[in-house]
Amino acid sequence: MNAPEEIRILAPTGVCGSGFSEKSFELALAQQPHFIGCDAGSTDPGPEYLGTGHTAFPPEAIRRDLRLMLVGARRLGIPLLIGSCGTGGADAQVELVRGMALEIAREEQLSFRLATIRSEQTKDYLLQRLREGRIQPLDPAPPFDAGVIERSAHVVGMMGAEPFIRALEAGADVVLAGRASDTAIFAAVPLMRGFPAGLAWHAAKILECGAAAVVNRRSPDCMFVWLRRDHFLVQAPDPELRCTPQSIASHALYENADPFRLVECSGTLDLTGSHYEAVDERTVRVGGSTFEEAQRYTVKLEGAELAGYQSILIGSVRDPFILRQLDSWLARLREKIEARVRMVFGDKLQGQWQLGIRVYGHNGTMGALEPVKDAQPHEVALVFELTAPSQAVARSLAGITRHQALHLPIPEWSGLITAVALAYNALDRGPVYRFNMNQVVLPDDPYEMFPMRLEEVA
Amino acid sequence: MSSLASLARLIRSKNAGPFVLTFDIMFEDEARYRRVRDSGVLTRERIAGLYNLPPDKVQLFFCDPALAVKASIPRPVTQGDVGDADGHGGQQYAPLMEIEVP
């Protein structure tokens, strides 16, 4: 079979669950794409999603987008590739999206070959690779040892394009993958068909955010690429949305540390020589991007571990006498709380709980980095954050904090004061997680961390 | 002299993964972009000073096709960890706005 000279690619939106216009989607399908790709996850919403297995976008919203994509892809008989299912890409999250796909298939009477690719890593596998010296830090990376692996609630590997290619070669019509490089979802088909890697990865980088790279973004929507051997064209199907050379070039900056060199499992996309030209007022031609193959294939790890359980107390202060001595008042308060905790719990909790105090209206956003030190706000919001080994203890600590904060005196007033306005009592936040790794594995091959299952859906 | 905020069309900050914070300073036209780029006020040392880091921890890029300057630094607190106040890193750019450009 001769390779086609053009691959047309549709990205309905930046994240499955964030939405897109059905009208734009229909316009895009009329362009006869060769496949549809969609990213479905990220670390951006925070560690709790990998930690708990919840999804950042509501399940109902994921189902809505997934239905439109599945029905559209089956109508055209083209592959649908979805990566980072369920936000974190852990097994339970992939399974959740698979369940939705099966349900939609029944409701819409769709039949297809489904490949599910898992990305969650077992502790045994990671411990073995660690012993072999085949887990290495990126920069910056938190410290890593067997303890980090043991403490993790979930660890996923970020797959490259190869596991998608393997699924397509096995005849998959729909691929639901665990954690995947956002770009791998879109680079797989072009690489499989022998298109130049630099252009394939660059087009993928723009597509993975849907219409985010347009000038006049209003809400998440579709993006379309015509990939050819020596350039690609990019356009948003909604005729109201415009891509310009600057808007497309700028997209390489987004959520990325280095705008010229983007690291993938198999190498590095180099945009130093990329050029961007306007084709018409809403279409851009891109060329000149290159790809350097890596000496060693690497797979990035993402892990989340339990940091504790939190209760949160929100209050505010209006008294100018307290506000003018707020730092010292809070320092005294912290001492009082610590003393009271020792009185109530003895030494039992020593080193196992934390009190964080955020002062909104002063430095709540930037903390110690806040350059404005001496502003005099007329009121501030205080957020007390109690972290403990269990929710019950966190709640008790919040109770202690509440009582100490309410009545901590200042010299200007004599008699019992009530120093903090509380609209609510303490709120339980539940378990909180932290990202605990920024390391890569050196696997034997691109597949060993990403087992695939095929099934016929009819 | 003009403030960077008055010359840029967008100054923003965002996570680049959970461990890196990145800043984009974007311009509408070549003239303003070149004025800032060639003024020499945006240096690793300047950004290191604003964010209390050693200069060798700052990555700085001048991105001509995008008419943009980009800087990346290690995140002061890992995204979402206990003590992090800005999970998306979206409100950490204010100190850049007041940089004076000749």
Could you give the order of strands across the largest sheet of chain B? Answer: 2-3-5-4
Structural class of chain A: alpha+beta
Proportion of strand residues of chain A = 25-35%
Question: Average pLDDT across residues of chain A?
Answer: 97
The Rg value of chain A, from CA coordinates, equals 26 Å
Note the total helix count of chain B: 4
Please tell me the total number of domains of chain B. 1
Oligomer: heterodimer
Q: What's the number of extended β-strand segments of chain A?
A: 20
Specify the overall morphology of chain A.
elongated
Main pleated sheet of chain B: 4 strands, antiparallel
Q: Detail the poorly predicted runs of chain B.
A: none
The helix content of chain B, as a percent range, equals 10-25%
**Count of runs of 4 or more consecutive helical residues of chain A:** 13
Spatial gap, N to C terminus of chain B: 4 Å
Low-confidence stretches of chain A: none
In short:
The complex is a heterodimer of chains A (458) and B (102). Chain A has 13 helices and 20 strands.
Secondary-structure topology with pairs:
The complex is a heterodimer of chains A (about 450) and B (about 100).
Chain A: E1 7-11, H1 22-29, E2 35-41, H2 48-52, H3 59-76, E3 80-87, H4 91-108, E4 112-117, H5 123-131, E5 135-137, H6 146-151, E6 152-157, H7 162-169, E7 174-177, H8 184-192, H9 197-207, E8 223-227, E9 232-235, H10 245-250, E10 261-264, E11 267-270, E12 275-280, E13 283-287, E14 290-293, E15 299-317, H11 320-323, H12 326-345, E16 354-360, E17 380-388, H13 391-407, E18 427-435, E19 439-441, E20 452-457
Parallel strand pairs in A: 1-2, 2-3, 3-7, 4-7
Antiparallel strand pairs in A: 1-8, 4-20, 5-19, 6-15, 8-9, 9-13, 10-11, 11-14, 12-13, 15-17, 15-18, 15-19, 16-17
Helix pairs in contact in A: 3-4, 7-8, 8-9, 12-13
Chain B: E1 2-3, H1 4-7, E2 10-15, E3 20-26, H2 30-39, H3 44-50, E4 59-63, E5 68-74, H4 94-97, E6 100-101
Antiparallel strand pairs in B: 1-6, 2-3, 3-5, 4-5
